[in-house]
Amino acid sequence: MEALKKNDIKQGHVVDLTHEGHGVVKFDRYPVFIPNALINEEIEFKIIKVKKNFAIGKLLEVKQASEDRVEPPCKYYWKCGGCQLQHMTYEAQLAMKKEQVVNLFHRKAQFNETLINDTIGMEDPWRYRNKSQLPIGKDKDNHTIMGYYRQRSHDIIDMDSCLIQDQQHQEIMNHVKQWLNDFNISIYNERTKKGLLRHLVIRTGHYTDEMMVIFVTNGSKFKQAQLLVEQLTHTFPNITSIKQNINDSHSNVIMGQQSITLYGKDKIIDSLSDITFKISDQSFYQINSSQTEKLYGKAIEYAQLNGQETVLDTYCGIGTIGLYMAPVAKHVYGVEVVPSAIKDAKQNATLNGFDNTTFVCGKAEEVIIEWKQQGIKPDVVMVDPPRKGCDETFLQTLLALNPKRIVYISCNPSTQQRDAQILASSYDLKEITPVDMFPQTTHIETVALFERKEDK
Ligand code: SAH
């Protein structure tokens, strides 16, 4: 084959989709990855980057479109880095997510026997985000802008709507932006590290409609804060809490350690099934509430509790999964590394009247060793780590604890597959269910059931 060169214009048939949702065209075995191309399409594209093992192409024209192609409803879709799959029907998105899991577990690993279910989707896969984190900046005419980042960059796209966000967040975003412009409020500049306002963060209790608005500032002095509070609460009387979070760091981390309550309560309340949760500004809370109920529902089905079990909820956040299980377990032990989340978990246990829970702040890989030394013998262990998956010492201790079942929730199936290979020495990976927590994006969430092998 003649080598591909930058700026070559080529035509080809898309044979595959990557986990980032990019179409793959092959020349002999050499792949070209083309964003926004769909499987089975005939396309024309331009080579924009050539590497040793692959090239990147830019889609120029779809000669023959896939049946899965739709017009993206969002006017910012082609620029914004928030969504990646709006040009696909929702059915195709769900099928693609399942296919990625099949590929990882059946083709790239030894789990051929594992049942992989269809992705559990949403009835209406829009406006699902209960949390918006909006960077604030200035455009070249010195106007305050707010929205999401452009793909693979930190340029802010100024937006007046976002179709995966809660509708009220959009209205608050537009109102705050207008106010910041009218009063010429100082805005943080990522390059110079100077200026005041960095981010607007909004959180809503999905079932309670309680709402928290957080202004992230560089430094604590925010002299117009009271004026803004009056404005906002007048226009949006359903806001329950307004906070200022102070972030002096020069990093990309959105929130700092310290928060001040400017108005109302310092936490908001939400409920999932019959359990009530208090959520503080810095704690992790699943951003798609109705899908979280389906995810936890599946996890509880896999856990098969009858009231007699000792359960570990590892990487527990504010204790949501453990508290879900507390009514049907003997005792639940939770561990989480963020102190404010553990404080919330303990309060949430009291709030719901549970006296059979223990929440510990620390690293899961360390606390699980302490639990083992204390002689705690779990029947079921829930595992829900961040994207990087579990620490190897954690998995080795988990194997030594030898629970009957392990239910592993993951937001990154490739690290879940890696960890599953370690657990496979003593456990059968019975079943995996993908749950679509993030429609219109390439993010995949899965819940997996491991059962102890009979002879162990
Ligand atoms: N189970 C919770 C949270 C899952 S997100 C829920 O469903 O809401 C993963 C959580 O793991 C985060 O809260 C994060 O703070 C926590 N975490 C990250 N590394 C950790 C570690 N080494 N030990 C314990 N918790 C950790």
Instruction: Let me know the average pLDDT.
Output: 95
Q: How many individual β-strands? A: 23
Distance between termini? 53 Å
Global morphology: globular
Order of the strands making up the biggest sheet:
7-22-23-21-20-17-18-19
What proportion of the residues form beta strands (DSSP E)?
Answer: 25-35%
What is the CATH class name of the largest domain?
Alpha Beta
How big is the Rg?
24 Å
Residues in helix, %: 10-25%
| Count of DSSP-assigned helices | 9
Short description:
Helices cover 24% and strands 30% of the residues.
Describe it.
With 456 residues, the protein is α/β, with parallel strands linked by helices. It has three domains: 8-64, Nucleic acid-binding proteins (OB fold (Dihydrolipoamide Acetyltransferase, E2P)), CATH 2.40.50; 94-123 and 288-452, Rossmann fold; 131-272, Beta Barrel (OB fold (Dihydrolipoamide Acetyltransferase, E2P)), CATH 2.40.50. Helices cover 24% and strands 30% of the residues. The chain is built from nine helices and 23 strands. The protein has an eight-stranded mixed beta sheet with strand order 7-22-23-21-20-17-18-19, sandwiched between helices. It has a seven-stranded mixed beta sheet with strand order 10-9-8-11-12-13-14. α7 (364-373) runs parallel beside α8 (392-401). It is globular and about 60 Å long. The chain starts with 8 loop residues before the first strand and ends with a strand. 44% of the residues are buried.
List the helices and strands and how they pair.
Layout: E1 9-13, E2 16-17, E3 23-27, E4 30-34, E5 42-50, E6 55-64, H1 90-107, E7 115-116, E8 131-138, E9 144-149, E10 156-158, H2 167-182, E11 197-204, E12 211-217, H3 225-235, E13 239-246, E14 258-264, E15 268-272, E16 275-279, H4 289-303, E17 310-314, H5 320-325, E18 331-336, H6 339-351, E19 357-361, H7 364-373, E20 380-383, H8 392-401, E21 405-410, H9 413-423, E22 427-435, E23 445-452
Parallel strand pairs: 4-6, 7-22, 12-13, 17-18, 17-20, 18-19, 20-21
Antiparallel strand pairs: 1-5, 2-3, 3-4, 5-6, 8-9, 8-11, 9-10, 11-12, 13-14, 15-16, 21-23, 22-23
Helix pairs in contact: 7-8
Bound molecules: S-adenosyl-L-homocysteine (SAH).
S-adenosyl-L-homocysteine binds at residues 284, 286, 315-317, 320-321, 335-338, 341, 363-365, 384-386.
